[in-house]
């Protein structure tokens, strides 16, 4: 099975089809694998009701999860020890970089991926080199972490594409440990990328999953990411801080249960948790407040709690023949 089929599969995600096509155009051959990784995020303690006390002590206080927004990477192995990398987000900044020996200067967008892949190569994973193309569907400005999902997606894809015949690639736990020791970053977010479950939160230490629940047995709450826009470059940082404070104040006033920054530090994105019946009111109040203050209306992104990273270029299973349907129910 070749990922080029993904580019020609009408039912496939259009973004993934574009990525596979872009890889083939850039490298003159189809990718071996296409992997997709979710954007991870932290949850504030107020957003998660305490679970039952476990035998070993209190339940976890810190939680992470994966969003249903993704970035994707396409990879094919090489044999010359070189990394040929490109990005649909930075089409004029491709590079050819050695994975062993002295490091070469990398484009800014490729610096962390390059460091991660050099660490993998030093551990014997993908040492022969790789061609890769990536695509991030969200800009950095929305506030969701990009580095950790990109590193995990690349590690999974390179380990998969470059595995020797008959040799099993490293497990996700092994890749997480390797990345954590070689590349500075947020280990909890990496765990969310690698081990998340749809509709579930993951303890930051990876010890347990639990469903995202509503209060008092009510409906499952919804998540809304508000990405602040700043007009012009003057006082950009101060303006963003003022605008995010405005988001939090108005959202809580309109019925949001919690508001927090999804990353490890404040940014231009604010994640809101609220009952489903308050989502429209929260959006309206936040947008109205920005308009009254003469600020650009923020971008609103609905967030669902999604699964971990997965390979996307596998052929879907054939449909069950009609005469066998009753046997599979």
Question: Can you describe this structure?
Answer:
This protein has helices at 4-7, 14-27, 111-122, 147-161, 172-182, 187-195, 236-253, 279-292, 325-328; strands spanning 33-43, 63-77, 82-87, 95-98, 129-136, 200-203, 209-211, 222-227, 258-260, 269-274, 299-303, 310-311. Strands 1, 2, 3, 4, 5, 6, 7 and 12 form an eight-stranded mixed beta sheet that branches. It has a four-stranded antiparallel beta sheet with strand order 9-10-8-11, with helices on one face. Helices cover 31% and strands 22% of the residues. Helix 4 (147-161) crosses helix 6, helix 5 (172-182) runs antiparallel to helix 6 (187-195) and helix 7 crosses helix 8. Mean pLDDT is 86; it is low at 324-329.
Per-chain topology:
Elements: H1 4-7, H2 14-27, E1 33-43, E2 63-77, E3 82-87, E4 95-98, H3 111-122, E5 129-136, H4 147-161, H5 172-182, H6 187-195, E6 200-203, E7 209-211, E8 222-227, H7 236-253, E9 258-260, E10 269-274, H8 279-292, E11 299-303, E12 310-311, H9 325-328
Parallel strand pairs: 3-5
Antiparallel strand pairs: 1-2, 1-12, 2-5, 2-6, 3-4, 6-7, 8-10, 8-11, 9-10
Helix pairs in contact: 3-4, 4-5, 4-6, 5-6, 7-8
Task: Briefly summarize what is shown.
This protein is of the alpha+beta class and 329 residues long. The protein has nine helices and twelve strands.
Key features of this structure:
single chain, 329 residues, alpha+beta, eight-stranded mixed sheet, 9 helices, 12 strands, globular
